[in-house]
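Exercise: predict the structure of this protein bound to fe (ii) ion.
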Amino acid sequence: MNILGISAFYHDSAAALVRDGEIIAAAQEERFTRKKHDSRFPSNAVDYCLQAGGITANKLDYVVFYEKPLIKFERLLETYIAYAPRGFRQFLMSMPLWLRHKLHLPKEMDKALNNGYKGRYVFTEHHESHAASAFFPSPFNEAAILTLDGVGEWATGSFGIGKGNKIELTHVLQFPHSLGLLYSAFTYFTGFRVNSGEYKMMGLAPYGEPKYYELILDKLIDLKQDGSFRLNMSYFPYCHKTVMTDSRFENLFGGSPRRPEWPLTQREMDMAASIQAVTEEIMLRTTKHVYQQTGMKNLVLAGGVALNCVGNGRILREGPFENIWIQPAAGDAGGALGAALFVWYQLLNNERKADGRDKQQASLLGPIYSGEQISQFLDSVNAKYHIYTDEEELFDKVAELISEEKVIGWFQGRMEFGPRALGSRSIIGDARSEKMQSIMNRKIKFRESFRPFAPCVLRENMQEYFDLPGGQESPYMLLVAYVHNDKRLPLDTPLEKLKGLDKLRGKRSSVPAITHVDYSARIQTVDAERHPKLHRLMSRFEEKTGCPVIINTSFNIRGEPIVCSPEHAYRCFMATNMDVLIMENLLLYKEQQPQAKQHEVDEYKAQFELD
Ligand SMILES: [Fe+2]
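Solution:
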């Protein structure tokens, strides 16, 4: 039985195909259209899923959409009426999209499926989809479920229980009170893009002090002991305006918002630190409450807020749950997968067996390209490459190149589903290098200098380097842990004396390129089952250098979706200062390529809107 799940029209459109309960394919539309966070109907992702499953639309048994558009429309109307006559402009602005697409979804979906699908469309609730994406692929037979995001139809958060093949959400938090939207309001105010810059603000937080923590709790939010809260809506105009904050908010935080690309000041850093601390407090209180209410020892998480890996790390270290599993595509893209699994288990009542291993398949659910396809493309652009028939020789070579501080594009196997590159579409480098953080930010990714890089660590060696509680792994890069004391180095100037971006100065650990200014690192544990090739490469690097840690960042530049095809990878390689590109067993040196001209590089960069 083939079930196609779809999410669209908010942000991060995606499609997922589930066959007899097994995840066959899942991908985000942005990877194909090359428009980051593309929210249009995911026609390309649907085509890819059908192709990966070797079927056409007439072989689909169910097509399911990840939320209920009519209920969402009702929220829009009711919010408008509650605030009327304010908000008329915002209301008018949102109407065309609703009238053209959202209210006519079945028609839209018929078109995308070439009128091949003859069944009925199923619509699940937004938070049900998140919850299903968190629980059904998880390794647990039973678990508490917590979802937190901006907003779905009405819900902005929910919790309940998953048991066997059923989930039940018993509690919801409703719009406009939303942790996701609260975080986004600060994202907007600190000059980052809403729905994509949240990650940057989280990375900025360690440069600041949580000076405004009390002010936020005092003025903006009424936070209860159980983690539930009400926002003081007189500071948040998003119900009736197209902006997240206005003058009342500005008065609290000493003036107008930072404009995008303006220099960062201590105020933004302190605001980031403060809202991050408030968010963590809410996440911790909520998980404690969920634990008390459900009596479960396992917790599963999804929804955009579950991408806050600093918060997740604290839930793991300080929270009451023994085990945690987080859906790697925790944002709305993952709703497509959740919706499809919901139909298979919840609606069709199929058996589910949990055996202690997750069913996410390392989240490698996207397109794959053979060596032949890759060489065909490379020939078509006259690229020069070397073919390694002996894999060990290749790994040996790449390990050597990493240790020589070369920056390497690493393109292997199926593309990742979810926002993180996990070693299939990654740029990798030497974590021991002092200059690598700055090189990668400035010359490879063309992005802000404050942004940290994440490490891959061999699972076997994780506890030597990071303080993750015993046995816990982080295969999906969704947990932040701290670099171990004995890997830290004394700084010339004590950390507490350094302010703001000065904190970047100095080598603070034996793996400085991945150690954030507060010694934190968003780690990915690499194991031989999920990532056999990356594991072998890293083992080889460890044999050579004694270091089981490398940098892993996504294969893209600022504003660009992660590369999907060999063509995307080659173009990105040529437009940046990457030294080496490896695609399957083909290796390319930059200096041997027909040189890209500067104007082509600029053209490449200009394609992507700054995020
Ligand atoms: Fe969501």
